[in-house]
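Supplementary Text 2. Reproducibility record for the structural model of the 154-residue chain.

All settings were left at their defaults, and a single model was retained for analysis rather than an ensemble. We include the record here because the model underlies the residue-level annotations in Supplementary Table 4.
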Amino acid sequence: MKITNNAITGKEISTELATPINALIKFYAAFNNRNISLMEENWLQTNEASMSNPLGGIKREWKNIKEVYKKIFSGNARVYVEFYDYSIHTVEDMFIAVGHERGLLEINDSKIELAIRTSRVYKLHKNQWKQIHHHGSMDNPALLNTYQSTLLKH
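Retained model, structure tokens:
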């Protein structure tokens, strides 16, 4: 298993080639630029999609997942994350990316450093990698509480 420490931020040059790295670059470009249209392109638009993350709990179906991203993108708080210390596991028409996210939550003059364990599952759909599942967890309970309370009230 190859573990990569070069972070994916969404600023990397990607191509239209359907590769796992390009799918991940596009996800982080969508997230870090608060681009809901690009985020929508990254996810599978069916009821198969699911997400379990520190802010939204478990959400199923894209329409419910989209609401979590809309809340994050439209609030006063800015969230930036990058993916690092990851491995990619590929089988036929699916891949799983397992690693860590580090980042920053900024609101007014406050800055909170983020540390999240992250897994993303993608499915090949019409020759494009589409995210079908995301799971994110925070090990630090105090950080989780601060993250949730900050984003939910802003």
